[in-house]
């Protein structure tokens, strides 16, 4: 059995998680502590992938990432390669699809911070950036890690969006969920079963980690 799709899925999940943590943390911080016109519209746009069918999201991503789309044209000018049906393309798609799993949980954690801690930090002369790294992060690291884990495990199971944007190119865009689907279509139930049970074990272990972190945060809050 070919385990390369599992490696591609793990690689995709890791890269997506790192990028979303870098981009999503300041975005969640901004949404949690800033009021501005259109904030509700912005949050609704971020959470749209949660309710939008993956094929619909994949279609629109394919449109803007294609040769005639603005993102596809920009990417071709930058690296002289197409964006769709490449590993870079499915990274872009995964970022868009997993965005709410990164930003919204972190925003919820940030909003629970005692504002008096931030006020004390500002009184002591800390800037907003310094207060974020010295006050906010130490008090929310568990929630941020939980968010990262959720993004990772969600990306591992992506199917519709990846299939629309990346297709099924062996060694490049053929992730484990697509490999399972193709194995079932070819009546290779043993291969599909092995890949499925491997993915099930990984996801189950990751969710246990999330639950442990959640219980630890609740225990620290009570103490």
Explain what you see:
- The chain has 223 residues and is an all-alpha fold.
- The protein has one domain: MetI-like fold.
- Helix content is 80%, strand content 0%.
- It has 10 helices and no strands.
- The longest helix has 34 residues, at 189-222.
- The chain starts with a helix and ends with a helix.
Number of strands: 0
CATH class category label: Mainly Alpha
- Give the overall pLDDT as a whole number: 87
Shape designation: globular
How many helices does DSSP assign?
A: 10
- Briefly note the structural class of the backbone: mainly alpha
Specify the CATH architecture. Orthogonal Bundle
The helix-strand sequence is HHHHHHHHHH
* Major beta sheet summary: none
Straight-line N-to-C gap: 50 Å
Topology-level CATH name:
MetI-like fold
Report the helical percentage.
over 70%
- Beta percentage is under 5%
Q: What's the structural domain tally?
A: 1
Q: Quick one: CATH superfamily?
A: MetI-like
Determine Rg (CA atoms, Å).
Answer: 20 Å
* Low-confidence regions: none
């Amino acid at each position: 059995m070919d385990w390369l799709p599992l490696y591609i899925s793990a690689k995709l999940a890791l890269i997506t998680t790192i990028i979303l943590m870098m981009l999503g943390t300041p975005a969640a911080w901004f949404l949690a502590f800033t009021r501005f016109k259109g904030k509700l519209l912005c949050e609704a746009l971020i959470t749209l992938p949660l309710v939008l069918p993956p094929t619909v999201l994949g279609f629109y991503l394919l449109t803007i990432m294609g040769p005639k789309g603005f993102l596809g044209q920009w990417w071709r000018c930058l690296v002289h390669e197409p964006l769709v049906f490449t590993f870079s393309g499915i990274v872009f798609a995964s970022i868009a699809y997993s965005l709410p799993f990164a930003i919204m949980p972190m925003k919820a954690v940030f909003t629970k911070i005692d504002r008096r801690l931030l006020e004390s930090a500002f009184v002591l002369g800390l800037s907003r950036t310094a207060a974020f790294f010295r006050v906010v992060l130490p008090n929310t690291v568990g929630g941020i890690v939980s968010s990262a884990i959720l993004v990772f495990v969600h990306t591992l199971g992506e199917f519709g969006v990846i299939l629309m944007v990346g297709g099924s190119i062996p060694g490049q865009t053929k992730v484990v969920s697509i490999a399972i689907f193709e194995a079932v279509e070819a009546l290779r139930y043993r291969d599909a079963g092995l890949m499925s049970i491997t993915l099930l074990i990984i996801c189950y272990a990751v969710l246990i980690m999330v639950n442990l972190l959640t219980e630890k945060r609740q225990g620290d809050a009570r103490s």
